[in-house]
């Protein structure tokens, strides 16, 4: 395929590099530029599929430095693909500011769907999937975290939170403090060799946490009060 003049939002694998669509690889091959959160990480994916499209670093923090350049390229007829380190861009990852600028400039934005840790964990958790609320990473302040958990925990939906390994125990304790001993799913290393989805009461999962520090991030799902 030949890419159109557009900004493509391309989902990339969350672990296993085979989890990418044929359409996504074709877009990455055919665009003029790829902008990514970490070019070193993205290059591993491109090398796997022999894609040689030029790479440029993009993060929301440096948006103001390169936004004009990217938007001007798009206005001039170029095609650009945006990817993040893993999963679907903008979902707790960079890209919002660039997409907003493109929309404001009248540039076509094309989503290329694919892997998402949120959807992958939710689909295999056994918790209700009819309604869910995604909170991303919670604030660092304990007071703010508890307030968010209490507020969203009153909704008739499964809650989904991202958490770092060193704060997982704290999160489970906060869930119990804010919501009681609800059923929780803790997903880690999704699509990788040591993929794990553990489901149980928050207290049970807290008791089962080992001392060995895990790598990567956790996707934590919290069941609604009654289902």
UniProtKB/TrEMBL annotation:
Q: Which CDD domains match?
A: RsmI
Q: Which Pfam families match?
A: TP_methylase (PF00590)
Indicate yes or no for the key word S-adenosyl-L-methionine: yes
Any idea which UniProt keywords this protein has?
Cytoplasm, Methyltransferase, rRNA processing, S-adenosyl-L-methionine, Transferase
> For this UniProt entry, what's an example GO CC term?
cytoplasm
InterPro entries assigned to the protein according to its UniProt record, in alphabetical order: 4pyrrol_Mease, 4pyrrol_Methylase_sf, 4pyrrole_Mease_sub1, 4pyrrole_Mease_sub2, rRNA_ssu_MeTfrase_I, SAM_MeTrfase_RsmI_CS
* Tetrapyrrole methylase domain: residues covered: 7-205
User: What role does this protein play?
Assistant: Catalyzes the 2'-O-methylation of the ribose of cytidine 1402 (C1402) in 16S rRNA.
Q: Which family does it belong to?
A: Belongs to the methyltransferase superfamily. RsmI family.
Protein name (Swiss-Prot/TrEMBL): Ribosomal RNA small subunit methyltransferase I
